[in-house]
UniProtKB/TrEMBL annotation:
The chain crosses the membrane at residues 43-61. It comes from Deinococcus antarcticus. This is LapA family protein. Keywords: Membrane, Transmembrane, Transmembrane helix.
């Protein structure tokens, strides 16, 4: 956007300079206080002097934009490392939960073995637990994909 504005400004300034080339090249006396120059094109010098602040502003704005992009990149790297850390912690918690559920399930299965009616209940509970585990894994994968899309 800045480049477009700068190009438009330069085109308009060039058009103005072309239309007023006689005024810009008309010789004048230039007094700097410590030196005096005769037959200098003061208009052309003023035109050149107006380009200098424009270029300084353009480069200053570019540096500001680059700093903002660097800050954004650093923030995204920090967020990615935090997400990785949280994912690993969450994974260990799920492993602990899975181990606990497996122990509980094994205890329930050993208690339910003598009766055949309880075995079917245990099997249905196991099927429900497997379905819940698949659903939980799916939701975690969806959250992971969402975070990856948002963080880049």
């Amino acid at each position: 956007m800045r480049m477009i504005v700068m190009i438009i400004f330069l085109v308009l300034l060039g058009l103005l300079a072309i239309l007023n080339r006689h005024f810009l090249t008309y010789p004048h006396t230039l007094n700097l206080g410590f030196a005096e120059y005769k037959d200098m094109p003061v208009g052309l010098m003023l035109l050149a002097a107006s380009l200098i602040p424009m270029l300084v502003f353009y480069f200053w704005a570019s540096v500001t934009k680059l700093r903002a992009q660097a800050d954004t990149a650093k923030l995204l790297r920090d967020m990615e490392s935090l997400r990785t850390s949280l994912d690993s912690q969450e994974g260990s918690r799920f492993q602990q939960l899975q181990a606990h559920l497996d122990r509980q399930f094994a205890e329930m299965q050993t208690q339910a073995l003598p009766s055949s009616g309880s075995a079917s209940e245990v099997a249905s509970l196991a099927a429900k637990m497997d379905a819940m585990k698949r659903d939980l894994d799916l939701q975690l994968d969806q959250m992971d994909d969402y975070l990856k899309r948002k963080l880049g």
